[in-house]
Amino acid sequence: MTQVQWFPGHMAKAIRLIEDSLKSVDFVIECRDARAPFSTRNPVLAKTVQSKKRLIILTKKDLANPQNLQMWIKKIEEEGHEVMAVDVLNDPIKKELLDKTQILMKDKHDRDRRRGIRSRASRALIVGVPNVGKSTVINQLINRRVAKVENRPGVTQALKLIKVDKTLEIIDTPGVLWPKFETEEMGIKCALVGSIKETGFPLELVSDFAVNYLKKSHGPIILENYRIDGFENFFSKLAQSKGFLSSGGKEDIEKARRTFVSDVQNGVFKEVSWDY
Ligand SMILES: Nc1nc2c(ncn2[C@@H]2O[C@H](COP(=O)(O)OP(=O)(O)OP(=O)(O)O)[C@@H](O)[C@H]2O)c(=O)[nH]1
Ligand SMILES: [Mg+2]
Questions:
Q1: Are residues 20 and 117 in the same domain?
Q2: How does 193-216 read in b/e, with b if 16+ C-beta sit within 10 Å?
Q3: Fewest CB atoms within 10 Å of the CB: 30, 82, 118, 228?
Q4: Does residue 198 surpass a pLDDT of 90?
Q5: Residues with a beta carbon under 5 angstroms from ion ligand 2
Q6: Is residue 230 part of a domain?
């Protein structure tokens, strides 16, 4: 039994809403976190959306390891999807997204032309795990804050249709996870990119996984960041260094673990990728 699980009622409802609205869309924009393009792909959704053409947007490119990201882009292209990797907060994405839309819609537009029909605006559904940046993508595309954005999972709770321009409409959807992770490691990685609410994962398991994984690739930067001298009794040293002490003067290990996980989620250690 995996210990990492977060599937509140609104997600089951969101999956049903997504399934219903799939009938009325031309293609699907699937956002995945560039740091974990495998673990943040949603196998339940993948099944639901497999009949539709797909554009995969790898978000938070600024936080991922560049070589690892190139490997994933190639892999996803080989699977036959359109893919783009972006830092949604800084890279302009509209032109690339509209170009990719034209590629995905080419067959339909050709068909329309042969029949002498003027093509209507294409309609896409944007889906992905919580907190991956779906609403940020939409806000950037229309240059306004129509979709609510916050750095916590579960912000968007209902579907919302947004007109990007006369050629494209996008439906924003709530982030969804799946009722059961395929492996515990996938769940842990979803937690480490911020897709699972803090109360939805076991802190000890997730923070131990992160420190064991990162000490190999990012050891010096972590130690320097917290001004500590080694990974033995890491969370105890971190608590001391930060002055996290409970009333009796004992180190507050839980607070140290929470701080570490939150720093990892927020990209403090730079270029961290979880899937390989
Ligand atoms: N560093 C970085 N942060 C990003 C990027 N894209 C989005 N964010 C941040 O990620 C957080 C979540 O963004 P949202 O757009 O609310 O994510 P969402 O997928 O709509 O989330 P839900 O509605 O909860 O499913 C916000 O703090 C954004 O500022 C990116 O490319 N790089
Ligand atoms: Mg949202």
A1: yes
A2: bbbbbbebbbbebbbebbbebbee
A3: 118
A4: no
A5: 134-135, 155-156
A6: yes
Cβ–ligand 1 contact at 59 (below 6 Å): yes
Distance 124 CA to ligand 2 centre (A): 15
**Which CATH number belongs to the domain containing residue 24 in this structure?**
3.40.50.300
Q: What is the mean pLDDT of the chain?
A: 91
Label each residue of 140-207 as H, E or C.
HHHCCCCCCCCCCCCCCCCCEEEEEECCEEEEECCCCCCCCCCCHHHHHHHHHCCCCCHHHCCHHHHH
User: Is the CB of 130 inside a 6 Å radius of any atom of ligand 1?
Assistant: yes
Residue 2 has what pLDDT?
Answer: 61
Question: What CA–CA distance (Å, rounded) separates 274 from 276?
Answer: 7
**Mean pLDDT computed over 57-81:** 97
- Which residue, 255, 276, 254, is CA-closest to 189? 276
Which residue range(s) make up the domain with 233?
Answer: 202-265
Chain centre to alpha carbon of residue 230: 31
Q: What is the Å distance from ligand 2's center to 133 Cα?
A: 7
Taking residues 37-45, report their average pLDDT: 83
Runs of H (alpha helix) within the chain: 9-22, 43-48, 66-78, 94-114, 134-142, 184-192, 203-226, 234-242, 253-265
| Among candidate residues 230, 223, 229, 214, the one with its CA nearest the CA of residue 271 | 214
Single residue among 172, 188, 223 that ends a domain in this structure: 172
Which position has the token pair 């954005």? 149
| Per-residue tokens: 251 | 């180190």
